[in-house]
Amino acid sequence: MNDLINFLKTRRSTTAKTMIAGHLNESDLADILACGIRVPDHGALNPWSLTVIREKARSRIGKKILVPEYILKNPDATPEELDFEKNRFLRASAVIAVLFKPVSHPKIPLWEMELSTGAVCSNILVAAQSLGYAAQWLTEWYSYNNKMIKEIGGNPKTDKIAGFIYVGDKEKEPVERRRPKTENVINFLTE
Ligand SMILES: Cc1cc2nc3c(=O)[nH]c(=O)nc-3n(C[C@H](O)[C@H](O)[C@H](O)COP(=O)(O)O)c2cc1C
């Protein structure tokens, strides 16, 4: 089995809960982003954009958006919950937000643009994991928040957040999760 197949067959996400913010090497980040935008994209429409949230932006967004927007949704929020929101992005060395930005096209359906955006997220995740980083694809509540969409350059009327890919360091190797049985999800047609 070659190295890539072996990696793809065994890679595993590390939850943001268990990762630690550490050092994300600049050239690794550049590679992760390059892999992220090298995806199948019908019509080469680039119906997506990436925003890297790092350094002070992680706490700024926590204070400016996550805390006040969480309070609006949860007026009875406890100080502990608000503290968690303030520090949410600090769990990672960097959080890469992927925005779905549909393009008007006479033939290519929106669905295919959404699929390409999912591929961007997947490539970022897999690239980061291949370099040994802890990484997880999350949407959580703030992906569906208009202020957050605007913060990463989107228009809430048209654009959607496909995910936030958290990239950090591993404290320990993640344990395997439940996987589908191949016979339940894979069919072969031969005639
Ligand atoms: C679009 C999308 C959104 C997700 N959002 C969440 C989330 O908000 N919270 C969560 O606990 N897991 C979420 N997950 C699942 C995590 O990414 C989880 O770590 C993943 O299923 C682990 O699979 P892996 O080990 O094969 O990478 C999401 C997955 C996808 C594809």
Structure in words:
With 191 residues, the chain is α+β, with helices and mostly antiparallel strands. The chain has one domain: NADH Oxidase (3-Layer(aba) Sandwich), CATH 3.40.109. The chain is built from seven helices and four strands. A four-stranded antiparallel sheet has the order 1-2-4-3. α2 packs antiparallel against α5 and α3 runs antiparallel to α4. It binds flavin mononucleotide (FMN).
Separation of the first and last Cα atoms: 29 Å
The unique ligands bound to this protein are: flavin mononucleotide
Radius of gyration: 18 Å
Helix content estimate: 25-40%
Tally of individual helices = 7
Uncertain segments are: none
Mean pLDDT: 98
Note the beta-strand portion.
5-15%
Report the principal-axis shape: globular
How many discrete domains? 1
Number of strands: 4
CATH topology: NADH Oxidase
Kindly report the spatial arrangement of strands forming the biggest sheet. Answer: 1-2-4-3
Structural class: alpha+beta
Largest sheet: 4 strands, antiparallel
At the fourth level of CATH, the homologous superfamily is NADH Oxidase
Broad CATH class? Alpha Beta
Q: What is the element string, with H for helices and E for strands?
A: HHEHHEHEHEH
CATH A-level architecture: 3-Layer(aba) Sandwich
List the helices and strands and how they pair.
Layout: H1 3-10, H2 26-36, E1 48-54, H3 56-73, H4 79-86, E2 94-100, H5 110-130, E3 134-138, H6 146-151, E4 160-168, H7 182-185
Antiparallel strand pairs: 1-2, 2-4, 3-4
